[in-house]
Amino acid sequence: MRALFYAGPNQVEWRDVPAPRLQGDGEALVRPLAVTRCDLDYSIVTGAAGWPGPFALGHEMVGIVTAVGDGVTAFRPGDRVIVPFQISCGSCGACARGLTGICESVPFRSSYGMAPLSGFDHGGALSDLVRVPFADHMLLACPEEVSSVAGAGIADNVADAFRSIAPYLAQRPGARVLIVGGLAQGIGLYIAEAARALGSAEVVYLDDSFARLDIARRMGVRVEARATFEGKAPDAPYPITIDASGRPEGLALAIRSTEHGGVCHRTYGDLKPTTEVPLRDMYGIGLTLHLSRLHARTEMPAVTEHVRCGHLHPEAVITRTAAFAEAAEAMLDPTVKVVFVNEDA
Ligand SMILES: [Zn+2]
Ligand SMILES: [Zn+2]
């Protein structure tokens, strides 16, 4: 079958690889229908992430189940499903606590499309077939109302955005929210939409990219164009701030713009091993800085329901639709969010 590979900085290519087969009773095979480019994918393929190739790409997908093992009871061939980007068993100690991103039954950080993270190659979503272990636990039925294009991002970035804002607004209903946009291109915009949908009294989206500001404006949130990230955000302080810029100066701006006792959420770790943060000031004003990887499977059902009932519109962030045949080139397009549609499915 074909699979899209990262071969080196700015080198993305289709390769012919053996198709996966069921390796156990609890597994399923899924044919990807729509795959979205994760924000991290762009950093990978441009070489910014510094990951060694080659490895198969793609980890946000909606697909059709084509085969199941004898032990799979919840899914049948023909079911349309959202496949979380992380591999998890659903029954270990970590999974029992909802921490499906650190499942103890598989190599640490096991994911589709990101072999260097775990050292174990689970294949990528930009291929004709994907093997899903622990299928009854991992797979989530994609509701009829959710298109494959809208649903693919729920496997990672859309769920990541939702959990980056929903808990804070639940604690502070109606609170104003500041988002500093940037490297986490799609996630920052998904957060803006979710903050608005979840009842924030005012959402301010600040960025230096006119393309992203334009999408935020169309979502109906207040936008602030900034060439540099000096000073504070307009009308600071904010009870909830989000740094999606992936840049130290974006994090610093978010922290400076956070209210005493407020919370600042960072969507990325960082591309660099260390980042300076003003701990003394943060301690003094009682600022909570939160960052962690997403536990995708745990977060997916709630956000899927918000998409199903029309509160969230992930497709509003998509700026390019490409066929799988165009994926090698489209993967390197600097545009905000690409969806790849499998023309053979
Ligand atoms: Zn991702
Ligand atoms: Zn587990």
CATH-scheme architecture of the largest domain: Alpha-Beta Complex
The residue fraction in helices comes out at 25-40%
The low-confidence parts are none
Shape: globular
Compute the average pLDDT. 97
Largest sheet: 7 strands, mixed
Give helix and strand order, one letter per element, not per position.
EEEHEEEHHEHEHHHEHEHEEHEHEHEHE
CATH superfamily of the largest domain: Medium-chain alcohol dehydrogenases, catalytic domain
Labels describing this entry:
single chain; 345 residues; Quinone Oxidoreductase, Chain A, domain 1; Rossmann fold; 2 domains; six-stranded parallel sheet; binds zinc ion
Summarize this structure briefly.
With 345 residues, the chain is α/β, with parallel strands linked by helices.
Can you characterise this structure?
The protein is an alpha/beta fold. It folds into two domains: 202 residues, Quinone Oxidoreductase, Chain A, domain 1 (Alpha-Beta Complex); 131 residues, 3-Layer(aba) Sandwich (Rossmann fold), CATH 3.40.50.720. 26% of the residues lie in helices and 23% in strands. The protein contains 13 helices and 16 strands. The strands form three sheets. Strands 3, 5, 6, 7, 8, 15 and 16 form a seven-stranded mixed β-sheet that branches. Helix 6 crosses helix 8 and helix 6 packs across helix 12. The two termini are 13 Å apart. The structure holds zinc ion (2 copies). The site of one zinc ion (ZN) has 5 residues, from loops.
